[in-house]
Every structure is written in C-alpha cells, then in structure tokens.
C-alpha cells in the first residue's frame, strides 16, 4: 500500500506499493554544503561518511513502514473475514489516513517549533502500539481502532522524516534521498507479501501485526546521534493551534462522511451533513489558496498528490480482496500480485531523478498519471474468468512506475516552491492532501463497493459469494480520477510574472 513513498504507507503507503505518504518533501536549504551535522569527514553522497548513519536510519524506518504496508495488504482480506467485518473493509485503510491527517498537521507545527526529534520518536511508539492493538483485536471495530492509532504514529513520523531531510541534507542531495526512500521499498515489497502470507496461513493473521513492533528499536539507535546533531529550529513561537484544530476538524468530518457512506440510510444524512460542515470550510483553510481549483504552481502540486495517491490506493486496497474472493487465490498469491508495483515505483522514482530529465518534469508527471489510469483499468479484466489472474500483476507493474514518476517528481517541485522557514508546514500540507485524497477516495471506493453488493462477500470457502460489479465500480471510478490527475499536471508550472 500505496509513503507508499506509505500503502503508506502506509502513507502512506501507503505501500503492496509504497503508500503515498512517504513522498512529501521539505523546503530547500540554502546552504550549498548542507550545513554541519557535527559528524566527522566529508559527504559527497547520501552514503558518504557525514550522512551515512542518518541515511541508514531514515531508510530503515521507511523500510519498516513499507514492510508493514505490504504485510497489511496481504493479511487484510483474511483478517476482515475472520472478524466478520468485510463491510468495514475500507475503514481498515481509511481509518489510518483519517488519523494521520490530524497527526501530520500536528507534526508539522511540532517540528517547526521544537525540531523533529520528539515527534519522530513519539510517532514510532504510536505506530508500534497500533500494531499491537490491531493484532489483538477481537472485533472488527477494535481492529479499525488499532489502524487509527497506527495512523497517528505514521502521520507524526512521515512529516518529521522530511523535515530531517530538509535540515540535514543540501539541496543537491535531496533528490537522491527521495530516490533512496523509494528504493527502501524494494526489499519489503518482495519479502513482505511472501512473509505475511506464510505467517497468515501457518500461524494466523494476528502474528503479522504482533511481530512487527520488535523491529522499531534498531533504526532509532542508528539515527539518534545524527538527529541530536541537527541544527535547532529557527522558530521559537508556540504552535499554531488554529491549524491543528482545523486538521482535527477535517479528520472528524471525514470520519463522519465515511460512516454515513457505509450506512446509506436516511439517518445517515445527519452525520453526512455534519461531516460536510466540518470538512469543507476547514480543508479550504488548511491547504494553500487555489488548491481545489488547480491554481498554477504549488496549489496544483499539492492537489495532484492527493489525486494520485488516493486513486491508486483506492483501487489497490481492493485488489487482494478481489483476488481472494473472486479468483480464489491464496492470501500469499494475492499479496505477491502487488510486488511488481513496489519495484517499478522505485524505478520510476529513479528515472525522474536523472538530471537530463529535469526540463521535462511536468510531462513525466502527466505520463505517470496516464499509466496509473491504464493500470487500474486493466485490473478490470481480472474480473473475467477467461482472463488469467496474473494480468493484475502486469497492471500493477505499469501503475507502480507511473506512481514513481508522478509522486517523486511532485516532491522535487515542492522543493523548488518552498521557503526554508516553512519546511514543516509545507510538508504537512502535502501530506494533508495525501491523507485527504486517501480518505476521500478510499472512502468513495468503500461506498461503491457496498452499494454494488460487496458487503455480501462475507462467507468463506466454496459458499463465498461473488460480486464482480462491486469491484468493477471501484476500478472504473478510480481510473477516472487518475485521468483527472493527468489534466492537473498541465497546471503544475507556475505563471511567470
């Protein structure tokens, strides 16, 4: 799960492919040499002596998030059916991003005022706690609650990581750091589905969640010395409580809308109206002016992030469930179908980082969005029994490459359009768009899924019901959203005044 660069990852990642939340970028630092981290030796690359420990720690954290996203995508269909909660399947994904949306705004303010160290460590602790809650859940709502706690941790971590990048690395190295973030997904997306599928089938799905928290300690120990050497925050004023409250209102409003969408009764109009009343005005104040009308420059960069991440994750969230229930694949095989997307995501990110392609960045992003639309539409073919199920793996190879081009390029554009003193808030804005896109489009996918009969897919074994229309509605809608994103890429270049 689609960050995929936190699928995401939970940002996310979401994922699986890397969750979209792992690709935000901090503001550019003006120093040509990246400042003094207090470490000995030079550092011409991100793996040079000066930056090695910090890069290793950051990449390890991203790999942990990537592994969790891949594992969750694989185990989720089994967990939802075991807890008799397929009708709440989309909540298990959207709860993560709803909670992370609030945490991202909090983390941005926290980082700008106090530095990234405390929010980073707090977030990792919350992420581990959420895994434990989800792994020990006895009811689906408890499982969803655990995912929300994970979202709080993920939101704190992802913004803090990119603030670290903005303060610790010179501008010339930041694209390479972003590429290493995407590369950190490669091993997890290969190992994650196989490991999670084997654990799910042999020991039970719970151990997929309960085993991951033991992995959080090593990266903390590796990166702590370098984090302590970071320069202090340039701001000393208190946190912008207004921005934090706005993010909280957006998260609550999004949650109410998701509840109303799943209920689909007359009574659901009440939470739907309350959700809209909270969501719309607060989002307009939380994101840069002109975001939702695709104003040229930074607003369109931020809008595209939400469209790209949400459309990809909205489709990806239902791929393993579709393969398990409609094509009778095992959890392991269903999870492995997403592996290629993670690999090509890293390849796409590497492609966009080539200096000779810099003049064509906007076109690369347009190509990326078109590839995402094509990949989602191709998954529709797997709903026909005469089409081999491996077509999904092919489709996700295409889509992953498109995400690598679009998401990572957008991060580089944000680098150019941000001021150093706004590193935390700009990163948070991009992540808020990411989370809002995931919440909205995964939520929409869930509504379409239930509306077209997907809630009936609760039985297991030979009596399991087949509802291809429920999955078809999801994929058609998400492919259409990706095409809208292709249009947004024509608005990325700022007007020259």
3D structure, described in words:
Residues 1-43 and 459-463 have low confidence and may be disordered. The chain is globular. The protein has 497 residues and is an all-alpha fold. The protein is built from 18 helices and no strands. It has helices at residues 52-82, 89-114, 117-135, 140-168, 174-183, 186-202, 206-210, 217-228, 241-263, 269-286, 298-316, 319-326, 331-336, 339-352, 361-379, 391-417, 423-451, 468-488. Residues 54-497 form the Major facilitator superfamily (MFS) profile domain. This is MFS transporter. Residues 1-41 are annotated as: Disordered.
Question: What Rg do the Cα atoms give?
Answer: 21 Å
**Low-confidence segments, ≥5 residues, pLDDT <50?**
1-43, 459-463
Sheet with most strands: none
The number of distinct β-strands equals 0
State the share of residues found in helices, binned by percent. Answer: 55-70%
Mean pLDDT: 77
Task: Assess the beta-strand content as a share of residues.
Answer: under 5%
Structural class of the helix and strand makeup?
A: mainly alpha
């Amino acid at each position: 799960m689609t960050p995929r660069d936190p699928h995401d990852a939970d940002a996310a990642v979401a994922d699986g492919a890397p969750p979209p939340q792992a690709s935000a970028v901090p503001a550019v630092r003006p120093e040509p040499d990246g400042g003094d981290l207090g470490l000995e030796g030079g550092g011409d690359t991100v793996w040079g002596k000066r930056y090695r420990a910090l890069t290793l720690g950051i990449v390890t954290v991203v790999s942990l998030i990537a592994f969790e996203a891949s594992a969750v995508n694989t185990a989720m269909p089994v967990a939802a059916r075991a807890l008799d909660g397929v009708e709440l399947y989309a909540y298990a994904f959207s709860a993560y991003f709803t909670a992370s949306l609030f945490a991202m705004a909090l983390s941005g303010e926290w980082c700008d005022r106090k530095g990234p160290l405390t929010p980073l460590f707090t977030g990792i602790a919350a992420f581990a706690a959420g895994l434990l809650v989800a792994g020990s859940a006895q009811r689906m709502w408890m499982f969803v609650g655990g995912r929300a706690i994970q979202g709080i941790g993920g939101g704190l971590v992802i913004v803090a990581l990119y603030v670290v990048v903005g303060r610790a690395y010179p501008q010339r190295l930041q694209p390479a750091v972003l590429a290493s973030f995407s590369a950190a997904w490669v091993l997890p997306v290969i190992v994650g589905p196989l490991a999670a599928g084997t654990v799910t089938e042999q020991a039970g799905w719970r151990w997929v969640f309960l085993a991951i928290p033991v992995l959080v300690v090593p990266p903390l120990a590796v990166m702590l010395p370098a984090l302590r050497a970071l320069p202090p925050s340039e701001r000393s004023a208190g946190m912008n409580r207004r921005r934090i409250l706005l993010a909280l209102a957006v998260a609550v409003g999004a949650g109410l809308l998701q509840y109303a969408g799943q209920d689909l009764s007359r009574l659901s109009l009440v939470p739907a109206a309350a959700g809209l009343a909270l969501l719309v005005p607060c989002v307009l104040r939380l994101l840069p002016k002109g975001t939702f009308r695709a104003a040229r420059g930074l607003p369109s960069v931020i809008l595209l992030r939400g469209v790209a991440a949400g459309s990809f994750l909205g489709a990806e969230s239902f791929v393993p469930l579709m393969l398990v229930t409609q094509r009778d694949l095992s959890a392991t095989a269903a999870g492995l179908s997403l592996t290629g997307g993670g690999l090509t995501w890293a390849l796409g990110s590497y492609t966009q980082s080539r200096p000779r392609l810099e003049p064509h960045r906007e076109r690369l992003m347009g190509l990326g969005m078109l590839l995402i639309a094509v990949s989602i539409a191709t998954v529709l073919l797997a709903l026909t029994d005469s089409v081999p199920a491996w077509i999904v793996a092919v489709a996700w190879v295409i889509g992953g490459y498109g995400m690598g081009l679009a998401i990572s390029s957008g991060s580089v554009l944000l680098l150019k359009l941000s001021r150093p003193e706004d590193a935390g808030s700009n990163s948070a804005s991009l992540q808020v768009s990411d989370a809002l896109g995931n919440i909205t489009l995964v939520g929409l996918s869930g509504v379409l899924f239930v509306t077209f009969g997907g809630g009936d897919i609760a039985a297991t074994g030979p009596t399991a019901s087949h509802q291809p229309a429920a999955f078809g509605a999801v994929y058609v809608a998400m492919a259409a959203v990706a095409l809208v994103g292709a249009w947004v890429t024509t608005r990325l270049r700022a007007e020259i005044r």
